[in-house]
Amino acid sequence: MILRRDIRQYLALIGLLVSVSFESLSQTPQEQRTLLELSQQYGIQWQFQRALAESIAVLTNLPIRKEYPDGRIIELQGYEFGMPVYHATRNLNAARTISSDRVWPGGSGGFSLTGAGMLLGVWEVGGIRTTHQEFGGRVTYGDAGTALGQHATHV
After folding, report:
1. At what angle do helices 29-59 and 4-22 cross, to 10 degrees?
2. Do residues 145 and 125 touch, judged by C-beta distance below 8 A?
3. Helix ranges restricted to H, the chain
4. Which of 13, 93, 134, 155 is most buried when burial is the number of CB atoms within 10 A of its CB?
5. Per-residue pLDDT reduced to its tens digit, 77-89
C-alpha cells in the first residue's frame, strides 16, 4: 500500500535532485550516483504502488480521476489503512483569492469571460510547462528562458 510517508520521501528526493542539479559542484560523483539510484528506486516503487491502487479502484468501482463541475479535480494516489488517498486541486480557491472568478460566466463582474478565442500574454521569470494538460498545445513562447518555473505554469 502506498503511504503518505512514501510519497513525501519520493517528492523530497525529487526536490533534492533538483537542488543537486544547481549544486552539482558540491556533490561528489559517488553521491550523485547514489542520489540518482535512490530516485530510480523510489520512482519504480511509486509506479508499482500507483498501479496497484488503480487496480483496486477499478475492482471497487472508485474513480481514479474525477473532474467536478466547479473545476476541482481529484486523482487517486494510493491507499492508506485500506482507504483511498486522493490529491485534489485547489485552483478554485486560488481563483477566489485573486477574484478572477468574478470575470467568469455568472461572476459578479458581469464579464462572462471563458478564454475562448482570446490571446493571453504573461511575462514570467521561468518558462511554462507547455505539456501541461490544461494547455492542449496552445502555448507560444515569445522570449522564454530555459528554466521551467512552476509559478509560470500555474499563472
Report:
1. 150
2. yes
3. 4-22, 29-59, 91-97, 150-154
4. 13
5. 888 888 999 988 7
Question: Hey, is 56 helix, strand or coil?
Answer: helix
Q: How far apart, in whole angstroms, are the C-alpha atoms of residue 151 and residue 129? A: 10
- pTM to 2 decimals? 0.44
pLDDT at 1: 46
Cα dihedral: 94, 99, 105, 109 (round 10): 180
Looking at residue 77, its amino acid is Q
**Distance of CA 90 to CAs 54, 74, 93, 94, Å?**
23, 10, 6, 7
Pick the closest to residue 66 from 81, 80, 84 (CA basis): 84
* Residue 51: Cβ-neighbour burial (10 angstroms; 0-12, 13-18, 19+): exposed
